[in-house]
């Protein structure tokens, strides 16, 4: 079992010191989806939601969330993101919307938390935009699918 780096010798939570780590190009990809009733998906795709463009709003919300992850997750470092891409894709077979996020930085710590946070907030925004039609929507399958860079190297699900 690996050592938990966010705990000090006394078992107390602390922010990991990354000051001596070298800066490298780091990439994280995360995904998830929201399922909804077929009629809700149809309204979303047709642009018939009272609140407006759900996918455009969710894309911006995901980007903003990635940039503010350090404010939401107590032990995360504030990162200078060099790239964040939020892709939202309606799917008839779910029915619902898939969210894929790629986050990048050049720094001393990874961007996994930023990618995961962006997925969650983008999907929560879709929920918020569609909830008048469908309160039974479900956010599922949020996970890290790939990370690259840093001491631990590449990892894929």
From TrEMBL:
The chain positions of domain Molybdopterin cofactor biosynthesis C (MoaC) read 15-150
Catalytic reaction list: (8S)-3',8-cyclo-7,8-dihydroguanosine 5'-triphosphate = cyclic pyranopterin phosphate + diphosphate
The EC number(s) given in the record are: 4.6.1.17
Name its GO BP terms in alphabetical order.
Mo-molybdopterin cofactor biosynthetic process
Active-site residues are 128
GO molecular function terms attached to this record = cyclic pyranopterin monophosphate synthase activity
Residues bound to substrate are 75-77, 113-114
Family matches, as Gene3D superfamilies: Molybdopterin cofactor biosynthesis C (MoaC) domain
So what family is this one in? Belongs to the MoaC family.
Complex formation:
Homohexamer; trimer of dimers.
Q: What does this protein do?
A: Catalyzes the conversion of (8S)-3',8-cyclo-7,8-dihydroguanosine 5'-triphosphate to cyclic pyranopterin monophosphate (cPMP).
Name of this protein: Cyclic pyranopterin monophosphate synthase
UniProt organism field:
Spiribacter salilacus
């Amino acid at each position: 079992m690996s050592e938990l780096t966010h705990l000090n010798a006394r078992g107390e939570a602390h922010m990991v010191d990354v000051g001596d780590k070298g800066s490298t190009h780091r990439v994280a990809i995360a995904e998830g989806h929201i399922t909804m009733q077929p009629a809700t998906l149809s309204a979303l795709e047709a642009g018939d939601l009272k609140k407006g463009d759900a996918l455009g709003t969710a894309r911006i919300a995901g980007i903003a969330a990635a940039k503010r992850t350090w404010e939401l997750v107590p032990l995360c470092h504030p990162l200078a993101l060099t790239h964040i891409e939020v892709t939202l894709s309606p799917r008839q077979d779910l029915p619902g919307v898939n969210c894929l996020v790629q986050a990048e930085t050049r720094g001393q710590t990874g961007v996994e938390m930023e990618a995961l946070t962006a997925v969650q907030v983008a999907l929560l925004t879709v929920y918020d935009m569609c909830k008048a039609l469908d309160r039974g929507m479900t956010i599922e399958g949020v996970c890290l699918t790939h990370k690259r860079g840093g001491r631990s190297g590449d990892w894929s699900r």
